[in-house]
Design brief:
- A two-stranded antiparallel sheet has the order 1-2.
- By secondary structure, it is mainly α.
- β1 and β2 form a beta hairpin.
- The two termini are 36 Å apart.
- It has 4 helices and 2 strands, in the order αααββα.
């Protein structure tokens, strides 16, 4: 796999993950906060089934107070928009380079 292919694959994976973050729901992160701090087998099974993609940080102190930090979905959307513009720019550059090559071929003949 060439370096360009690896970069494209990495970029596609990053875009896919940012789309997931931008569209994730916080319901399961809130459910996690309401689970008891003493983990029973039943609660572990519940946690295993939660979608915690929106969760950036989770803290529970000794008094039972819970602090949840969620991912910044707006930042993910902004980054997606920026990457989309970069992709459009790259496509436009490739198009114009192809046009220049074609034009150069026409003058040589």
């Amino acid at each position: 796999m060439g370096e360009t292919s690896r970069k494209q694959t990495a970029r596609a994976q990053a875009l896919r993950r940012m789309k997931q973050i931008a569209g994730c729901r916080v319901n399961d992160a809130v459910k996690l906060a309401f689970l008891d701090s003493g983990l029973e087998q039943e609660q572990i099974a519940v946690i295993d089934g939660l979608d915690l993609g929106a969760l950036a940080e989770f803290k529970r102190n000794s008094s039972g107070t819970v602090e949840i930090k969620l991912v910044d979905r707006l930042a993910a959307l902004e980054r997606l928009a920026a990457l989309g513009q970069e992709g459009e720019r790259e496509q436009a550059e490739a198009f114009f380079q192809a046009l220049e090559r074609k034009a150069g071929e026409g003058h040589e003949a």
